[in-house]
Amino acid sequence: MQSAISLSLSSPSPIARSAVSNTSDASSPAPRSLRFCGLRREAFDVKASFDASSLRLNRFNYLHSKSSNSSKVFAALNGNGTPPSGGFDYDLVIIGAGVGGHGAALHAVEKGLKTAIIEGDVIGGTCVNRGCVPSKALLAVSGRMRELQNEHHMKSFGLQVAAAGYDRQGVADHANNLASKIRNNLTNSLKSLGVDILTGVGTVLGPQKLKYGKGDNIITAKDIIIATGSVPLVPKGIEVDGKTVITSDHALKLESVPEWIAIVGSGYIGLEFSDVYTALGSEVTFIEALDQLMPGFDPEIGKLAQRVLINPRKIDSYTGVFASKITPAKDGKPVQIELIDAKTKEPKDTLEVDAALIATGRAPFTQGLGLENINVQTQRGFIPVDERMRVIDANGKLVPHLYCIGDANGKMMLAHAASAQGISVVEQVSGQDHVLNHLSIPAACFTHPEISMVGLTEPQAREKAEKEGFEISIAKTSFKANTKALAENEGEGLAKLIYRPDTGEILGVHIFGMHAADLIHEASNAIAMGTRLQELKFAVHAHPTLSEVLDELFKSAKVKVGASNKVAKPVPV
């Protein structure tokens, strides 16, 4: 549920669609606050981490280390690249050991670069410790609870199940133990691959020069990557006590399951936690600033998802309102939430609930990086970069040998996007120009059923088509026509394709249904490789599998005869 993180908070960026009163410029574009990662194989298998060839298998996760006593941990092996040229201590130093920094470090080792990574918190960052990993553990529990509680679903299989229950501490331990295991494996894998782990806060002193830790530990590097991530955004007027008014960081500890919890924000974070809480017995109230729930999703997919994920469950909602003030429970009084109209700012209502979860997105962490030393000014807290992740200073000029990836640059607040950006930067510093196509990066919401997407929504595609003078077409397939989905009694679902009929170019794919998060990658890879629909129609899918949902979707597209197979160029965004 979380993306990469590091230390504390600088200027929080306003999240336009958060359901909270905010005096910042509401017209500022909101970053996509999504929470995902792709852990490489070494995270789950320590033995595999010692096999250098496994580096090419999957993209992995980060590291951090909170040790205050030792300021430096050297890699266990001596194979950390060749000695750097030009008298530098390292070829590459990365500030931040979340998903982005970790992915960059592993790719740098593959490229033979002498690499170090600086981390001031704990190995794995938000994803491993307060995000992707523990949240998926909780969602795994909620999925099983939801299935066991569905008597009609069980009877359709001829199964009889007694009333399902759960042990809250056992559920919390499952999430915590998984995070601990992955964190330890990440640390071991980095050491084995020859990456030096430097502990403490990293600060840029000047071109190609940094310091880290509490002392004057100064090092030089030919190239530097900033990958410090983000922290939960808590707007003004909200008092977080970590017990009854919480952020996602606190919620993942599952210290309690309140009878009634208000979730401020109905985006990805809010939706996933509503799935967890309702499965465990809570009643949920969404508070959303916009006039509809689930902003940011393709409207058609959002409407279907709301019918399945919200309407039948113990969830109600307030839309078009801000939570202008939230006071934690104390002295026997419940949590107090004051609501105002999002447009007129007039008082609307006051809620009294057992707990409130602030799910209004994330803000970049860029504090204490020493940006003033290189004349860099943040924009709404984000570090400005170009399409190659090169940092731009206050005069609009590129800062030589300095890059920023992940949540800190605000291009796409996804953990796996940070990793992809890091790999792209390593390609560049290794002498190979590379521009990442952000429109090929998928996103997923791990509810039950799941939601996934890549590329443009239908409104975005229509706006682009009108501006650039081309037509778009829409194709859809239902999970109700898929044999595997029907065998699982999971026929509720839809896949939607947005494309250009004149060229066969895929503009966007949106899926709601069983294992949507896994299915989306065929579409995202097609966009990344520039593969057109007229080529995908010949792809073969095993039967019976859920992948045939995409097979039918691509085959149903009506591409004009004679459409070009020319590969699309990467789109810098």
Walkthrough of the structure:
It contains 14 helices and 24 strands. With 573 residues, it is of the alpha/beta class. The strands form 5 sheets. Strands 1, 2, 3, 4, 5, 6, 7, 18 and 19 form a 9-stranded mixed β-sheet that branches.
Give a topology summary:
Elements: E1 72-73, E2 90-95, H1 99-110, E3 115-119, H2 125-130, H3 132-149, H4 151-156, H5 168-192, E4 196-199, E5 202-206, E6 209-212, E7 217-226, E8 230-232, E9 245-247, H6 248-251, E10 260-264, H7 268-279, E11 283-288, H8 299-309, E12 315-319, E13 321-327, E14 335-341, E15 347-353, E16 355-358, E17 362-364, E18 390-392, E19 398-404, H9 415-429, E20 443-445, E21 450-455, H10 458-468, E22 473-478, H11 483-487, E23 494-499, E24 506-513, H12 516-529, H13 533-536, H14 548-556
Parallel strand pairs: 2-3, 2-7, 3-4, 7-19, 9-16, 10-11, 10-16, 11-12
Antiparallel strand pairs: 1-4, 5-6, 6-7, 8-17, 13-14, 14-15, 18-19, 20-21, 21-24, 22-23, 23-24
What labels would you give this structure?
single chain, 573 residues, alpha/beta, five-stranded parallel beta sheet, 14 helices, disordered N terminus
